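Summary for the lay section of the report: proteins are chains of building blocks that fold into shapes. Here we show the chain for DNA-binding NarL/FixJ family response regulator and then a coded description of the shape we predicted for it.
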Amino acid sequence: MITLLLVDDHPVVRNGPHGMFAAAPDFEVLGAAAGGAEAVAMAQRLDPDVVLMDPRMPEGGGVAAIRELTARGLRCRGLVLTTYDTDADVIPAIKAGATGYLREAAHRDELFEAVRAAAENRTVLSPAIAARLVEGIRAPVGHRPLSARELDVPALVARGTTNREIARTLFISEATVKTHLTHLYAKLEVTDRAAAVATAYERGIRTPRPPDR
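The coded shape description reads as follows.
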């Protein structure tokens, strides 16, 4: 059972996902919040697995709330669900600690799978956002250089692949994947997979195109 907290300042928008998840047998909606500050307080009290968050809200922004959830060391994963998908929205949310970023237009099964992935701490990006992040990466300038294998990793992570899938795609062991990720985090000065993708994109690091899955 995956537990959720829904956060959006529009009751009608909250009610859509609430009805979908409440009707599904493997999800439980613990509550709903209308702003970032309320979301942080509820997350601390209810301890959900995933917080489904709107990044733009008048009563405390979702990005600031995700940053606060991360700073407090709560185990819940922040998953952004919004109509906004510009780089100015996506990058700050991911760097704040969001596990993933989805458009509200995502269909039911895609949303369910995204929440399951977020609960397992897997990076979740809508296909359009993932494609833009992967294609927008260019040669690094003025930062610690990445090895060839470290360059392979961000593009695969952006697709939401697990360590096992990355190992299979690159013909290496899972232990080696973890080593590459550790080195990648250190060089990009990040602490998780989603932030590694966002920072690589922001810094313009060109990655080889990995084989199609």
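Put simply, here is one thing we learned. The chain has a mean pLDDT of 82.
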